[in-house]
Amino acid sequence: MPSIHETIRTRRTIHDYAPVPVPEEAIQRALEAAHCAPCHKTTWPWRFTRVGPRAREALFALNVRLKGAKAPLDPRQAAKLREKMMDPGALIVASQVVSADPERLREDYAAVACAIQNFSLSLTADGVGSKWGTGGITRHAEAYALLGIDPAVEQIVGFLWVGQPSRPHPAPVRPPLSAHVRTTD
Ligand SMILES: Cc1cc2nc3c(=O)[nH]c(=O)nc-3n(C[C@H](O)[C@H](O)[C@H](O)COP(=O)(O)O)c2cc1C
Questions:
Q1: Residue 161: beta bridge partners?
Q2: What pairs with residue 131 in β-bridges?
């Protein structure tokens, strides 16, 4: 098992997946890691929706419709979109219980982000890739409906794609840490 530091350093956003299943133990461990995230006032604001094959096909069909709204997708574009949405071994939707209090909403969003990072680090440690996606479909009313998420109760924070990378994903070039750290007297 890699160290926590190694896991943090080597976690990558994975864009291209091999069409193979993900071991259930890895998903379960990742969900448990997510559930260990901190949350202010113990609001436990994260919810996870495990998306089954029928809902996933429906999400794919919705995305074809959304992306083809201006000009219909050509077969190559449609095939690429199918790979993107159907190849990852699993799709889990992370959502946040909403609040009328803007401060609570902000802090709970931060807590859900911590949960998503724990989720992704746990998968990395288990040799499984993931991606936090926030494209247009994640905000679409039809996506909420087919996932059974009531937007008056929860907001979707991300689609978490999970699976085995089909190619190496190099790390982005990061600016030096010194440009992001200041020290006061
Ligand atoms: C809030 C949030 C939203 C993101 N949404 C997307 C997305 O919609 N599509 C995507 O390809 N990557 C998305 N990412 C992943 C970032 O693009 C990725 O973290 C960044 O390119 C750095 O790569 P790394 O994760 O491998 O370090 C998102 C990341 C965060 C934190």
A1: 91, 131
A2: 161
Q: Where are the alpha helices (DSSP H) in the chain?
A: 4-10, 24-34, 53-67, 75-86, 102-125, 141-147
Task: Point out the residues of the chain with pLDDT beneath 50.
Answer: none
SS3 101: coil
Domain assignment present for 133? yes
- For residue 174 the two structure tokens come to 């990061």
Of residues 77, 85, 88, 84, the one with CA closest to residue 20: 88
DSSP 8-state secondary structure symbol assigned to residue 148? T
Taking the CA atoms of 164, 168, 172 and 176 in sequence, report the sign of the dihedral they define: positive
Give a yes or no: residue 107 inside a domain. yes
pLDDT for residue 169: 98
- 15 C-alpha vs ligand 1 centroid, how far in Å? 10
The structural domain count of the chain equals 1
Residue 92's closest CA among 131, 48, 30?
48
35, part of any domain: yes
- Residue 181, domain member (yes or no): no
- φ/ψ bin of 60: left (φ > 0), alpha (ψ from -120 to 50), beta (otherwise): alpha
Kindly report the CATH number assigned to the domain that includes residue 154.
Answer: 3.40.109.10
**Amino acid 11: pLDDT:** 98
* Best mutation site among 11, 13, 93 for ligand 1 pocket (most ligand atoms within 8 Å of CB): 13
Q: Which domain range does residue 44 map to?
A: 16-50+87-167
